[in-house]
Every structure is written in structure tokens, then in C-alpha cells.
Design brief:
It is a single chain. This protein is an alpha+beta fold. It has a single domain, classed as ECO RV Endonuclease, Chain A (3-Layer(aba) Sandwich). 33% of the residues lie in helices and 28% in strands. The chain has three helices and eight strands. The protein has a five-stranded mixed beta sheet. It has a three-stranded antiparallel beta sheet with strand order 4-8-7. Strand 2 and strand 3 form a beta hairpin. The protein is globular, with a radius of gyration of 20 Å.
Length: 197
């Protein structure tokens, strides 16, 4: 990627624009990276899809790849990886793998300089660097884009059981938040009920 000519302009240096450009660049070249081991390959998905890239190898393993970009010049980066419900359904099939392809980069003028690339199944990501966000059923997130801990050859069963433990702690906290919000809007309702038409 660092050998590419600059694909940025003065209007496209935002993290979102860079992310879209890097994602397209990877998708367009990904098949050449994996070579003859791939049987089926696709990179045409909607914004809310689980994958940016999808492929099946000759043995029959099915991979969906989510491309995440992280600008090292930003102070806060907490990317969503996937829905806990969607991942749990996807991982019911042992041949399925959800892969994170994380690209850490810096911007120098109009040049994107890639500093690090992480390409790993989600179950190799340590729970020390992950958290859950309150969107839908819950979203697995990288807690801090600057800190990623990979445990190669981690056990999927153990990782998924840990996910269930994390969820069992997460949901009660969300319920408490919702109760306090309900109470807040009960007060708002009382305030507005006393208002003249």
C-alpha cells in the first residue's frame, strides 16, 4: 500500500475518506494476495454488511473480512467490529471465520503511510483489548484503536464462552441505564403535562 501513488486530495484526508479509499484498494488487490487458495471471492457489499471482503478457500473454509482503518494521529478510536448476535449466528458453523483486517496509518501531506497491518480472526483478539457497545443487541468494539492484543491460535470455544460472560455483565448495566432514562423522561412528562396548551 505504501508503494501506491497518493490517492488523496485536500478534500479527502478525513479518516472516513481514507478508510473508504484503503478499503477499496485492499478489496481490488485482495484476490492477488491470497492467490490460488481461493475458490470464491467477492467484495461488493452494502454499508451495513458484516464483510467488506468475502472468500472461500479450496478446503471449504468461509471467510468474511472486515477492513478497519486507524489513523495513528487521532487520540480516540473505538471501532465497532460486529454485532454480537450476528457473530454468534455466523459462528454456529465451524467452517466460518470472521477476520479483522486492521490498517494503522499516518498521513503525510496527501500520502497515506501504513505503519502496521493486523490480519486475524476475531477470536485471536484478546478480551483485554475488546469491549461491548450499546447498539442493537450489542457491538463488539476495539476498546482503544492504539492497543490491540492478539493471542494466536486462541481457542474459539473458550473465546465465545468469554463473550457470553462479558454479555452477562453488560446487559444488567444497560438495564440500569434504561431504568434511569425512563425515570428521567417521567420527570419530563410531568413537566410538560403541567404546561398550558
Amino acid at each position: 500500500m505504501n508503494k501506491q501513488h497518493s490517492f488523496l486530495t485536500t478534500r479527502t484526508t478525513s479518516p472516513r475518506a481514507v478508510g473508504d479509499a484503503v478499503e477499496s484498494l485492499i478489496a481490488e488487490n485482495f484476490e492477488s494476495f491470497v492467490g490460488e487458495s481461493v475458490r470464491k471471492f467477492s467484495f461488493s457489499f452494502g454499508r451495513r454488511a458484516m464483510a467488506d471482503i468475502e472468500f472461500t478457500d479450496k478446503v471449504g473454509f468461509h471467510y468474511v473480512v472486515d477492513v478497519k482503518t486507524h489513523c495513528l494521529d487521532t487520540k480516540f478510536n473505538m471501532p465497532n467490529l460486529t454485532s454480537i448476535k450476528r457473530l454468534s449466528r455466523f459462528y454456529e458453523e465451524d467452517l466460518n471465520y470472521f477476520i479483522i483486517l486492521k490498517v494503522d496509518y499516518k498521513i503525510d501531506g496527501l500520502k497515506t503511510i501504513v505503519k502496521n497491518v493486523t490480519f486475524s480472526p476475531i477470536e485471536f483478539f484478546s478480551w483485554e483489548c475488546l469491549t461491548l457497545g450499546a447498539l442493537g443487541w450489542g457491538q463488539i468494539q476495539i476498546a482503544d484503536g492504539n492497543v490491540v492484543k492478539i493471542i494466536s491460535m486462541s481457542n474459539r470455544k473458550a473465546w465465545m464462552l468469554k463473550l457470553c460472560e462479558v454479555i452477562s455483565e453488560f446487559y444488567p448495566k444497560e438495564i440500569k441505564k434504561i431504568h434511569s432514562r425512563v425515570k428521567h423522561f417521567e420527570k419530563i412528562k410531568k413537566f410538560w403535562s403541567k404546561k398550558d396548551e
